Amino acid sequence: TGTVHYLNLRAFDHAGNVNPEWAQVFTLMYDPQAPVCYVVAAVEGDDIAVQWSAVDNTGLLGCQLAVEIDGGAPLTLTTECSGTLAYTTALAGQEYLFRLAATDLAGTTRENTAELTYHGTPPQVQLDAVRAGSLINLTWSASDVHSALGTCSLEVQNSEGVWHELSTDCSGEAAWEGAEPGFLHTFRLTAADAHGNEASAEGRLGVP
To answer: How does pLDDT run across 101-152, given as a tens digit for each residue?
Structure first.
């Protein structure tokens, strides 16, 4: 194991003339053992933490760590044979397969994979509605401790069941003047972060 074998060639003709130079035509390393490699992946906050390593008894020729998203084509992340990284562009609901391939000096390749479905952490939302005479005072906020907020929408449902958007700000205060007397209005705040995680909060209030 680990021994390099060389096949050399020297030519001679029918007259007995011999080329004094040997030509090396083939090199072979005897190594019946494949590389040993592993890769693990786990969600940490809104990222996917990936750790991997590969070793071989005779040495490694090269490695490739790639990711496949929802069964798509592999995308190379690194050619390092060991390390850790934070995969920061995951989207909610997608399946991620991380594949580590390691090739030793004898040309033998071994693979290992880690697979998970990413869900992430949804934003935190809060909505308060307080009646003030014929008005309804609204206070709302949305935040995300792991990533940036993508979109926000504050809506109200009228007596016909139709939703109307009041604001796209992720936080604020407003005195709403459109209350219909005797009807219980539903207010809804929806927020989505950069990874596609979504959360919502609702409140109901009416005016006499």
So the answer is: 999 988 899 999 999 998 878 899 999 999 988 889 999 999 987 778 889 9
- Residue among 30, 17, 18, 106 nearest 9 (CA): 18
Cβ neighbours of residue 175 under 8 Å, at least 6 residues apart?
132, 135, 136, 137, 138
User: Residue 106, SS3?
Assistant: coil
Q: Letter for the amino acid at 122? A: P
DSSP 146-194: SS-EEEEEEEEE-TTS-EEEEE--SEEEEEE--PPTT-EEEEEEEEEET
Residue with tokens 């496949």: 68
Helices and strands in the chain: count of H runs, count of E runs: 0, 16
Tokens of 130: 């307080």
